[in-house]
Design a protein that fits this description.
- 73% of the residues lie in helices and 7% in strands.
- The protein has 301 residues and is mainly alpha-helical.
- β1 and β2 form a beta hairpin.
- α1 packs antiparallel against α2, α6 runs antiparallel to α8 and α8 runs antiparallel to α10.
- The longest helix has 27 residues.
- It is globular.
Length: 301
């Protein structure tokens, strides 16, 4: 077994173990962990190991490793930290949070990415704390019109059951499902009508991710429709179907196209490296900041 595989495996196991401990501690020794959700949690732990393993292997590839190492060395170099911090914040906001580089290419394509990305972020921000037992709600015995929110087992805040906050909080997954479905529809439209995209697309890389996102979102909405308007009709079947779609999505996550989501933050180091090269060529960077044996050559080799 190569050194790279051992290192990646260690990182994967360590990250998965840390998450498992956080679930155990954050749910107060599993007191607030719902045993019915153990399959979801297992799928998330598997995805955590797979993503960390692949991420570590990717960072050890020679070109990626050089960009990663030199990028952060540039970032922490004395005399340029404030400028580098501003550049880093700018890249985070423009390249990750609002996908400006995609919007610049095609506005519809950029909106598609934003809908899918933020729909998934909202869903994850709601689902993970609930599944892991980090967040739960209880009625207040003395006033059943109020809910008490508990974070990691500690009481935090109360809110009325019929408040606007409660409505949006308890239906957050509904809103996120609609957002994701809208993004998936736009993506499918492009896949079916754009001849350039159609010539290069593959089922596993381009259609399967969209099918999985659509299936997870649709079955989630079906659950809401079942207990809201259909008196729980077929709820058990829909719940199992939804669980299958979610678990399959998490199990597939480390191996498919969604991995690029996790690559994007690491590419910020590449931006810093390329910025340092550009400023060096323009004479705007101290010579000592780039005078390390052959690193500019390494970046372009």
């Amino acid at each position: 077994m190569s050194r790279e595989v051992v290192k990646a495996t260690s990182w994967g196991m360590g990250t998965t173990l840390i998450l498992g401990l956080l679930i155990f501690v954050g749910s107060r020794n599993l007191a607030h962990f719902d045993a019915a959700l153990v399959a979801y949690t297992t799928a998330v732990l598997f995805a955590t190991f797979g993503l960390t393993y692949r991420y570590a292997m990717w960072l050890q590839r020679p070109p990626t490793a050089v960009y990663w190492r030199r990028g952060w060395q540039t970032f922490f170099k004395g005399g340029h930290r404030s400028r580098n911090l501003r550049a880093w914040v700018n890249h985070v906001f423009n390249d990750i949070l609002i996908n400006r580089f995609i919007l610049a290419r095609d506005r519809v394509r950029g909106v598609t990415h934003l809908l899918i990305m933020w729909g998934c972020i909202i869903a994850i921000a709601i689902t993970f704390p609930l599944v892991f037992g980090w967040l739960h709600f209880e009625s207040i015995p003395d006033d059943l019109s109020l809910y008490q929110a508990y974070v990691f087992g500690f009481p935090t805040f109360t809110f009325p059951v019929d408040s606007v906050f409660a409505f949006f909080a308890f239906h957050g997954l509904v809103w996120s499902s609609f957002i994701v479905i809208a993004g998936v529809m736009l993506a499918m439209r492009r896949r079916m009508r754009d001849e350039g995209a159609a010539a290069l697309q593959l089922f596993v890389e381009d259609f399967l991710p969209l099918f999985l996102l659509f299936a997870v979102s649709l079955t989630g909405l079906m659950l809401t429709a079942s207990y809201t308007w259909m008196r729980g009709y077929a709820y058990d079947f829909i719940a199992i179907l939804h669980a299958i779609t979610v678990i399959v999505t998490f199990l597939w996550l480390p191996f498919g196209k969604f991995f690029h989501i996790f690559q994007r933050p690491a590419q910020l180091a590449g931006h810093l490296s390329r910025g340092a090269i550009l400023r060096a060529r323009q004479g705007k960077l101290d010579e000592e900041q780039v005078r390390e044996p052959g690193w500019i050559t390494q970046l372009h080799s």
